[in-house]
Design brief:
Blueprint lengths: L5 E5 L11 H12 L5 E11 L3 E3 L15 H5 L8 H11 L5 E3 L6 H10 L7 E7 L4 H10 L8 E7 L19 H16 L3 H4 L6 H6 L7 H7 L8 E5 L2 E2 L3 E2 L2 E4 L1
Parallel strand pairs: 1-6, 2-5, 2-6, 3-4
Antiparallel strand pairs: 1-10, 7-10, 8-9
Length: 258
């Protein structure tokens, strides 16, 4: 099987799972453009725990890890199979780092709310890798480097989060506002660094000043980006197949590597 691309997908509001909008249409277009992968490894902002774990079950459950949304969203299921063999492969690639094989978690909305548009048939096996919240950004980038061989295994690697994610300033239920200046500046800076292949400032994003701190006041939605860009090889181009900002402070920017 030919080598797979890698994507960071800005997932935004969980209601995108049920929506037909510019973002979901672009995710669907990504799916149509890709050869069918052997499996998917997803790094989601919503499995942020104090250890590294990987889902290792045949039938991962659909997790509704949110509140206050319509019953239709809670009723939604994404019944993709798991892949225990891929879980063990991930564990081997990350050795000697301890990686717990998890049989309880499943697929959270950071994963299924985008994959339900990319692969609506839920027929590609999916494994999730947790984000160890005790570790600094460099740790997560380094793990991405170790996982780079998955590309040659026909595994599609997806990071799901948001480069800009500030819920405190999000315009819930109001008319669509103009993006905040700081959000636009930080997204623009991130784009420039990505296109230049200059990863260290992206790893050390906390040093990029107030715009970065407003855009990523907590790290969990930003860190999945580091796993994906760490897999950029020589000659791999960067592109942005999905663009836009929701609610003034959630960047829906997607990053394609390769």
């Amino acid at each position: 099987m030919s080598a797979c691309l890698r994507f960071f997908l800005g997932h935004g509001n969980p209601m995108n799972a049920l929506a037909d909008n510019a973002f979901t249409q672009a995710w669907a277009a990504i799916g149509r453009s890709l050869s069918r992968p052997k499996a998917i490894l997803a790094v989601s902002a919503h499995w942020y725990i104090p250890e590294v774990a990987v889902t290792a079950m045949d039938r991962p459950r659909t997790i509704h890890d949110f509140g206050g949304f319509p019953k239709e969203l809670f009723a939604y299921r994404y019944p993709a199979p798991g892949d225990v063999g891929l879980a063990k492969r991930v564990k081997l690639l990350l050795a000697p780092l301890p990686v717990r094989e998890d049989s309880e978690w499943g697929l959270d909305h950071g994963t299924w709310s985008v994959l339900c548009h990319v692969y609506p048939g839920a027929d590609v096996p999916v494994v999730q890798l947790s984000i160890d919240g005790n570790q600094p950004p460099q740790f997560h980038y380094d793990l991405g480097k170790k996982l780079a061989p998955l590309r040659e295994d026909g595994v599609l690697v997806i990071g799901s989060g948001n480069i800009v994610h500030n819920l405190q300033t999000y315009a819930w239920g109001r008319n669509v506002p103009e993006p905040y200046d700081w959000a636009m500046r930080f997204e623009t800076k991130a784009r420039e660094l990505l296109l230049a292949g200059d990863h260290q400032p992206l790893i050390d994003y906390e040093k990029l000043g107030r715009d970065a701190m407003m855009s990523a006041p907590t790290p969990e939605h930003y860190l999945p980006l580091l796993y994906v860009i760490a897999m950029q090889g020589d000659g791999d181009k960067i592109s942005f197949p999905v663009e836009g900002i929701e609610g003034g402070s959630i960047s829906m920017l997607s990053v394609q590597v390769g």
